[in-house]
Specification:
Elements: E1 7-19, E2 22-24, E3 30-34, H1 35-40, E4 48-53, E5 59-67, E6 74-77, E7 89-99, H2 100-103, E8 109-113, E9 119-123, H3 149-152
Parallel strand pairs: 1-8, 2-6, 3-5
Antiparallel strand pairs: 1-7, 3-6, 4-5, 4-7, 8-9
């Protein structure tokens, strides 16, 4: 068995600022994500994801299950529906354990969506914000954070 101390848990997939289309406490727990978005962000069925609610600050860990392709569905299921609600804006992030070498050279997949959860951009930079976007609070523009990923490496 590999020595786990030689691996780093890295953010490898992110779906940025989705609109939660459903939240149902009576569904079996997890988050249902449009299968197209899962594929673009390289999130696997059953993979652990963090969900961060931009609208209220809630943060939780659950696992991904695919929803109908092209539907834009983002459904918070089970107890998590008490923290994240229909209409909220959220960020979904997946992680992978990477070797030291992989951690310094991997390419994350960052998916940006429109108001209907349709992909508008795919980036390899976790701090990048698309130019001319209006996904910020109250329709303002999102701002990039940090230095560009490739520049830091």
């Amino acid at each position: 068995m590999a020595d786990i101390s030689r691996y780093r848990r890295m953010m490898t997939g992110k779906i940025h600022r989705v609109h939660v289309t459903q939240a149902d406490v009576d569904y079996v727990g997890s988050i249902t994500i449009d299968a197209d978005l899962m594929e673009s962000a390289d999130i696997l069925v059953g993979q652990e994801v963090d969900v961060v609610d931009v609208s209220n600050g809630a943060r939780l860990t659950t696992y991904a299950i695919p929803g109908e392709r092209g539907s834009g569905i983002i459904c918070i299921n089970g107890a998590a529906a008490r923290l994240i609600h229909q209409g909220d804006i959220a960020i979904i992030m997946s992680y992978s354990l990477l070797s030291e070498d992989e951690a310094h050279s991997y390419t994350p997949r960052v998916v940006f969506v429109d108001d209907n959860n349709k992909q508008i951009e795919l980036s390899e930079d976790p701090g990048h914000a698309p130019e001319g976007n209006t996904a910020g609070t109250d329709g303002g523009e999102l701002r990039s954070s940090g230095v560009p990923f490739d520049e830091y490496r």
